[in-house]
Write a structure and sequence with these properties.
Length: 591
């Protein structure tokens, strides 16, 4: 297949109209050019190109300059060099520097030919963030009390999601290009669950983490934490008190001043790369599971001054089972549950910032100039998305590669996903129109977690499709190289090969809220021998592996975030995946 540069007709027309805009300057400054905003036709990239060209003429802000490119390959700052590892084998485990993970060659889809390292040329390189789950941990609707039945239902480290995410931004800013090729990194893509409770407060924190700014990860009382961790209940880690809770009984420390530090102002430098956004179920749905038509009572309860912190084991199990099996998509059962426990609720300070945000609010936040950072305008989304009510789009990554961001959340309710017929048709059309470019597809859900085909209340006639159907569609197009996603909080790399000979890799990355708290660099290279290689390299945050319980600075909290996550109930090696799911070279036959 010829790999000449291909953009939509309207974009090419715009280039002829405005020759003063240099495409390579634009790509370097903004990482991409909008192709389509999820409304079935290509948009002229006037706004994105103009903004990117203007950005290219501006000096780079202090603290955002990428380090000088290193000779490739390099390992420093990646899990190839070192990975956090326990220094003791039992009880609460303290972390230190551990051995790195090697790179594994995978030739499931094509044979790797000798000498390719001397022939290859870089096509594109980017970083994936996924499942940051920035949390307003004092939010009244949270389900911490389910922990009485399931210890995994609440994490002791949840109050530190913001400093943890900022440290991940700092790691990316310190990278010296792509580790294998040394080529520039084009952008960062988040693949959903950027927020946790679909709260306006969390959305603001996310935008500032990515684009830069000061963040106070606190709502309610401006001076004091009000939540389960100062409740005195032994069910939760009472870090700042002497209560002998169940987490301290297995070695979690007593940290005086921890809660005051957790709600203190944090500063993010913002990414020194353009960044793009993909929506996840926790971004789109209240608590990540109740549909867009959720009971109005839940929105009222979110901003009110009452919070439930404790229920019985049987009640917790019943509620958890109801959510897991999608028996309550509107949240009406949850409304009745909360009302039945009204007398057990504790008084907290109400806060309007905890109100749920809508899909339109999500788009408006991305389009807000205050959160532009290094761009591009809208971070992939456009005013056309806002007008059409869509959250999917396509963009150009480099001369030979396009990116496609999908919306796999199901507005009908439940945490697993699907895709509507209208979007599926748009995807097919976009791939056909750009058949002379390689394609990388991004979504929140994985192929196996797209099993929820509940109708969208706003579009009942738009049939929902599963991950299996999406795989079939992608395998019809020889230009698809990869499908990059998250959702399952686990590293997993899956080959997909069709009977027609087409194939692609599905790259699933672990979350940044659960151990092992990783992001992933993906490099695309042409081996000049009839094959393409995708190199995947995992990275941790910039925080040191060793922690000091006396250090409650922003950096100290980010290091503590990692260690607490490592020790959280249920944390183990499974989410890190096998060696074949981590640092890899994934070979494909070139179409």
């Amino acid at each position: 297949m010829s790999r000449t540069r291909s953009v939509a007709t309207s974009a090419a027309h715009k280039d002829r109209e405005a020759p003063e805009i240099n495409r390579r300057t634009v790509l370097a400054a903004a990482g991409a050019v909008s192709l389509s905003a999820g409304i079935g036709y290509a948009l002229r990239p006037t706004d994105s190109e103009a903004a990117a060209a203007a950005a290219a003429e501006q000096p780079v802000a202090e603290g955002r300059k990428a380090p000088a490119a290193a000779l490739a390959p390099y390992t420093k700052g990646t899990t190839l060099a070192s990975v956090a590892a326990p220094r003791n084998s039992s009880g609460y485990r303290r972390l230190g520097d551990g051995a790195g993970w090697t790179r594994v060659l995978r030739s499931d889809l094509a044979a790797a030919r000798p000498g390719r390292e001397n022939r290859r040329t870089a096509l594109a390189a980017f970083v994936q963030f996924t499942d940051l789950h920035l949390m307003d941990v004092q939010h009244p609707l949270r389900l911490e009390y389910v922990r009485v039945h399931d210890r995994h239902a609440w994490r002791p480290h949840e109050a530190l999601t913001v400093p943890g995410a900022v440290s991940l931004v700092e790691r990316v800013n310190a990278l010296r290009g792509a580790p294998v090729t040394g080529s520039p990194l084009h952008f960062v893509m988040t693949t959903g669950d950027n927020t946790d409770n679909n709260a306006h407060s969390e959305l603001e924190w996310f935008m500032k983490v990515m684009s830069g700014g000061r963040i106070t990860p606190n709502t309610g009382d401006p001076h004091h934490y009000e939540g389960v961790q100062n409740s005195g209940m032994k069910l939760y880690w009472q870090a700042s008190s002497t209560v002998r809770d169940q987490d301290k009984s297995v070695g979690f420390p007593h940290l005086a001043g921890y809660l005051a530090a957790a709600i203190r102002e944090v500063r993010s430098p913002g990414l020194n790369l353009p960044w793009y956004s993909t929506v996840g179920n926790h971004d789109a749905l209240p608590l990540g599971c109740f549909g867009s038509h959720a009971d109005p009572y839940l929105a009222e309860a979110a901003v009110a001054g009452k919070k439930l912190m404790s229920v019985g084991d049987a009640e917790a199990k019943k509620l958890q089972d109801t959510i897991r099996t999608a028996q309550d998509p509107k949240g009406s059962g949850y409304r009745d549950f909360l009302k039945a426990h009204a007398r057990s609720m504790r008084s907290v300070t109400g806060d309007e910032r905890r109100a749920p945000y809508t899909p339109a609010d999500y788009l408006k936040a991305h389009l807000d100039p205050a959160y532009q950072g290094l761009g591009p305008v809208g971070h992939g989304y456009s005013s056309a998305n806002l007008a059409a009510g869509t959250q999917y789009y396509a963009f150009r990554i480099s001369d030979d590669v396009i990116g496609i961001s999908l919306d796999t959340t199901d507005a009908g309710g439940h945490y697993d996903g699907s895709i509507g017929t209208v979007q599926l048709a748009w995807l097919e059309k976009t791939l056909k129109e750009n058949k002379d470019s390689y394609a990388v597809v991004f979504s929140h859900h994985t192929s196996k977690s797209m099993t929820n085909t509940r109708p969208d209340p706003a579009h009942p006639g738009d049939r929902r499709h599963t991950g299996t159907e999406l795989v079939t569609l992608l395998n019809r197009h020889a230009n698809v190289l990869a499908w990059v996603n998250g959702h399952i909080h686990r590293n997993l790399i899956t080959p997909h090969k069709a009977s027609n000979g087409n194939s692609f890799w599905e790259i699933t990355t672990a979350s940044h809220v659960d151990h092992p708290q990783l992001a992933r660099i993906v490099e695309l290279v042409d081996n000049k021998d009839g094959t393409i290689s995708l190199f995947t390299t995992l990275i941790e945050s910039a925080a040191p592996h060793r922690t000091d319980f006396a250090d409650l600075s922003q950096t100290g909290l980010a290091a503590l975030y990692r260690e607490l996550a490592f020790n959280a109930p249920g944390a183990g090696k499974a989410l890190a995946g096998n060696t074949t799911d981590r640092n890899t070279e994934l070979v494909l036959r070139k179409a």
